[in-house]
Design brief:
single chain, mainly alpha, 82% helix
Length: 256
């Protein structure tokens, strides 16, 4: 599945880039009204073919088999949103430029993210020094690309899309509905990228370090301090180590 996803990411990135670079009229006008771009249409057809088996497979892993280590809920939501966006664009062809650029940016990130997952599966960090170097290099590029394209570019495009939507005019209620739907999807996918940034920072321990740097005490430590003070000021424990066990129980309850 990861290998096929990598192939999908590479092909879609190239098609969407060609779709934007070969259509200066689309870039100049930023159309929200229906606009046909053949390459963009082909790219989305390729993606829909990929998602027709990727989504059922990943949903079966997460919801039916409960293999939460294989995929995540935000990723399942992301795939569902992208699938809806692709289907609605193929039918209505609204917000062509925004869809093409955002899709290219996100899939280009996956060109580095999927090898990162494959390297984790192969345990490259434990194999050799050269493998560890390749892992670190790819991870560094992934972080840079993610921040610049998936966060920076897509967030900026979401703001510009908001401005274009404010000036949008149409007498068709159906067209209004599809444009607003694409607008909501764009913002949802962009916000999910920020959620993933927070999750990645938490896994690396950066959130705790940031809180410590600004003087925010972690909740677990604060609970431990209060519990230890309470144990020392109250009646002595009948068994040796009773105060330590009380603090440990308090911390465990707080985490649960």
């Amino acid at each position: 599945q990861n290998t096929n996803s990598l192939l999908h990411a590479v092909v879609v990135t190239l098609i969407m880039l060609l779709a934007v670079l070969t259509d200066p009229e689309m870039v100049r006008t930023r159309p929200l009204h229906p606009y046909h771009n053949l390459l963009g249409y082909i790219g989305l057809c390729w993606s829909l073919a990929h998602f027709t088996w990727t989504i059922p497979w990943s949903y079966d892993l997460y919801f039916c088999k409960g293999e939460r280590h294989a995929t995540t809920l935000p990723l399942c939501i992301h795939h569902a949103i992208v699938f809806i966006a692709a289907v609605t664009f193929l039918i209505t062809r609204t917000c062509a430029l925004y869809g093409a650029v955002a899709y290219a940016a996100m899939e280009f990130t996956n060109v580095f993210f999927i090898p990162h997952i494959l390297q984790q599966q192969l345990r490259c960090m434990q194999r050799s020094k050269d493998c560890a170097t390749c892992w670190n290099a790819n991870y560094a590029v992934l972080v840079v690309v993610f921040v610049i394209l998936r966060l920076g570019l897509c967030t900026w495009l979401a703001v510009v899309l908001s401005q274009d939507l404010a000036a949008f005019q149409s007498s068709s209620a159906a067209e209004w509905f599809t444009v607003i739907l694409q607008f909501a999807i764009f913002w949802a996918v962009t916000l999910l990228s920020w959620v993933w940034l927070q999750q990645g920072a938490a896994e690396l321990g950066l959130v705790g370090k940031l809180k410590s740097a600004v003087g925010i005490q972690p909740k677990g430590n604060a609970t431990s301090t209060r519990s230890s003070k309470k144990s020392s000021s109250g009646s002595p424990s009948k068994k040796p180590g009773g105060a330590v066990r009380a603090v440990s129980a308090s911390v465990s309850a707080n985490r649960a």
